[in-house]
Each structure stands twice: as C-alpha cells, then as structure tokens.
Specification:
The complex is a heterodimer of chains A (117) and B (107). By secondary structure, chain A is mainly beta. Chain A is built from no helices and 11 strands. In chain A, strand 9 and strand 10 form a beta hairpin. Chain B is 0% helix and 50% strand. In chain B, strand 4 and strand 5 form a beta hairpin. Classes of the chains: A mainly beta (117), B mainly beta (107).
C-alpha cells in the first residue's frame, strides 16, 4: 500500500525557516518524480515544487522560487522541502504527492504550516 | 504560464442530477488535464487523468472529456458522497496549475 506521511510543520515566525519531510513507503521511491502542493486555509490548491527521480532536476512555482528548496534522499525514501524567508502568505497545509506521468495519484495527509509572529 | 479558468465556482444540485464542471486553459494543453475531488479535511483524490482516463476504483458515473483548451468533468448521476470540491490540473508544462475549484453542494 502506497503511503506518504508528512512531518515537520507547525508555527514559525515570519522570516524564519522550516523543513518539511515526507516519508514514502509501498512503492519504489526512486522510480517517481515527487512534488509538494499546498493549500492556504479555505483556498484552492497550489503546486509548489517538483523533483526528478534522482534529484538532478527541480521545478518551482513563482511564489516560492528562490526561497524554497525541494530535495530527496532515495536511500531513505524521503522527500524534503526546505522553506526559508517564510511569509504569512506561506501559511497553508502542505501535501506531499507522487508524480509520474499524469501527476498526483497519491497524496499524503498534509501538514499545517502557520507563519505568524 | 498556463492559466486554468474553472467554472462554475459553486454548483447546487440534487441526488440523481447530471452535472458538468468546466476548465478552460489559456493555451492548448494537449489533453494533459486531471480532475481531483477533495472533501473537507481530506487530501485531494485523483478521479480522472489525461482528460478521460478513470482512476482505478473511481465509479463510472465520473467521466472526462475535452481537447485543446476546453475540458469537462461530468458526473452522470450524483450520489450523496459526491458533494465535495473539484479541481482541475494542467500538467502539460511547468508550472503546473490548478483551477480555482468548484464546490458542489446539495440543493
């Protein structure tokens, strides 16, 4: 059974950093692109970033480019999102999602990040 | 960047109704269009991929169609469990972009 479990969220002050993790199981992690998608409270979905199989290629949404870094550790089957210079508008539930061919067939349960002083 | 315009934003319907939700892309997305359902407090669930391919386990009352810039999700006969919010996603090119969502409510 495919499982994606996010962790690392919580309350953080504006301008600070936070790192999210997503532990994957039930499939060969290195065979898939992976991604982060977020959803601000009572808002729609926003793609944040994607990473290729070995991590050599990364892609970012305009709103996070230069501040967020997506990475992966295939030996640990874990996806990461390093978030720097956080802003109030980054407050959202962050989902880890599997992406290969047609994206986002499996999603994690989400982790809440609140940016506030 | 490709913009996705989803309509309607809200839809009120009854059990048994046939409903359609539309997404219009700002340019040709070559049928690289997925549909997702999201219930309150849950992660999204993929219903349809690449315009008209039904995800395994999804009931056949859900179907998708379209080409070029215009795409449609149809629910042939609404069931109580279908009342949720629906999103489209274009994956023709980065940045991937979602529609703004359609909230389907019980009339």
């Amino acid at each position: 059974e495919v499982q994606l479990v996010e962790s690392g969220g919580g309350l953080v002050q504006p301008g600070r950093s936070m790192k999210l993790s997503c532990a994957a199981s039930g499939f060969t992690f290195s065979d898939y692109y992976m991604a982060w998608v977020r959803q601000a409270p009572k808002k729609g979905l926003e793609w944040v970033a994607s990473i290729s199989y070995e991590g050599s290629s990364t892609y970012y949404g305009d709103s996070v480019k230069g501040r967020f870094t997506i990475s992966r550790d295939n030996a640990k089957s874990t996806l990461y999102l390093q978030m720097n210079s956080l802003r109030s508008e980054d407050t959202a539930t962050y989902y880890c999602a599997r992406q290969w061919g047609p994206p986002f067939d499996y999603w994690g349960q989400g982790v809440m990040v609140t940016v506030s002083s | 960047d490709i913009q996705m315009t989803q309509s309607p934003s809200f839809l009120s319907a009854s059990v048994g109704d046939r409903v359609t939700i539309n997404c219009k892309a700002s340019q040709n997305i070559n049928k690289y269009l997925n549909w997702y359902q999201q219930k309150l407090g849950e992660a999204p669930k993929r219903l349809i991929y690449n315009t008209n391919n039904l995800q395994t386990g999804i009931p056949s009352r859900f179907s998708g169609s379209g080409s070029g810039t215009d795409y449609t999700l149809t629910i042939s006969s609404l069931q109580p469990e279908d009342f949720a919010t629906y999103f489209c996603l274009q994956h023709n090119s980065f940045p991937l972009t979602f529609g703004s969502g359609t909230k389907l409510e019980i009339k």
